[in-house]
Design goal:
Fructose-1,6-Bisphosphatase, Chain A, domain 1, 17 strands, 2 domains, five-stranded mixed beta sheet, single chain, D-Maltodextrin-Binding Protein, domain 2, about 25% strand, about 325 residues, alpha+beta
Length: about 325
């Protein structure tokens, strides 16, 4: 059984996440006034996606914070091709690795829609005092010791788990501190919201097509069609469903036969939060947290949300 993260290390990592998140929150709120924030950087990231200026700023800020906190030996970011090991003495002896998406939904920055940061923390496998390696990064989600997200929306929230439930903290912009606001968060077992880009529904497998038809019919458990809500920022869609109940779906399609969401930076951390809040996260057939990663930027189909709704979707797929 994995050892829980110590309260001292947890406080250190929360501080490392909070400082750039608070600064980023302020930049986002002033984005329309800051030339260095809005628009594209002009580069493509490793995913082949156009980097936004704020993608780069966020990535650099979080890397600096993790490198200076003294207990992280390496990081991997969705924005970079390879992992980054910290060669200092503090880095070599650091106990943890962090994998993160610095700015989820960043294409929504210019249109003032909610975006977020997602993070996932593991204990290193390699011996302390040595350079960390790729195996430290490629651990199944069951080995996470700390995971969460920051949502930059109408308020800025930090939501996380260490394997003992889920708590949410809201940023007080006056004190510039995260304050406990949502203690022991629980995802409703059922709901009537489904989140999916239906533009490619005709290219999806027939089981999923039938499930969406079920959601839109009066034959479901509510006797009324579900509400379709798709923001396009994973963190925002997930957070709404965490509070109100619902299911988020990003399946495999011909253009993305392995799915599109990144297993290590997006799927695993939110899957652990979902499970800790009473929900489920699967590929449609397999528990997300049990997948053994083979590459840093591995993708996976994703069905995450209220327990009953994910189980129902899996039944249609089966």
């Amino acid at each position: 059984m994995k050892e829980p993260i110590s309260s001292k290390d947890l406080a250190t990592l929360i501080q490392a996440i909070s400082e750039p998140a608070i600064s980023l929150s302020l930049d986002i709120r002033r984005a329309g006034l800051l030339e260095h924030v809005l628009g594209q950087q002009g580069n493509l990231n490793v995913q082949g996606e156009a980097q936004q200026k704020l993608d780069v700023l966020a990535d650099e800020a979080f890397i600096r914070a993790f490198q200076s906190c003294g207990i992280v030996c390496a990081i991997a970011s969705e924005e970079n091709d390879d992992y980054l090991a910290f060669p200092s003495d503090a880095g070599l002896n650091g106990e943890y690795v962090v994998l993160f998406d610095p700015l989820d939904g960043s294409s929504n920055i210019d249109v003032n829609v909610s975006i977020g940061t997602i993070f996932s923390v593991y204990r290193r496998i390699s011996p302390k005092g040595t350079m960390p390696d790729l195996n430290d990064m490629l651990q199944p989600g069951t080995e996470q010791v700390f995971a969460g997200y920051v949502l930059y929306g109408s308020s800025t929230m930090l939501v996380y788990t260490t394997g003992n439930g889920v708590d949410g903290y809201t940023l007080d912009p006056v004190k510039e501190q995260f304050m406990l606001s949502h203690e022991t968060m629980r995802m409703p077992e059922n709901g009537r919201i489904y989140s999916m880009n239906e533009g490619n529904i005709q290219e999806c497998e027939q089981g999923l097509v039938r499930y969406i038809q079920y959601c839109q019919s009066r034959e479901n458990q509510t006797g009324m069609p579900y509400s379709g809500r798709y923001i396009g920022s994973l963190v925002a869609d997930f957070h709404r469903n965490l509070i109100k109940g619902g299911i988020y779906i990003y399946p495999e399609v011909p253009a993305s036969p392995q799915g599109r969401l990144r297993l290590l930076y997006e799927c695993n951390p939110l899957a652990w939060i979902a499970e800790q809040a009473g929900g489920l996260a699967t590929t449609g057939r397999k528990r997300i947290l049990e997948i053994s990663p083979t590459s840093l930027h591995q993708r996976a189909p994703y069905y995450v949300g209220s327990k009953w709704m994910v189980e129902k979707a899996m039944a249609f797929l089966a």
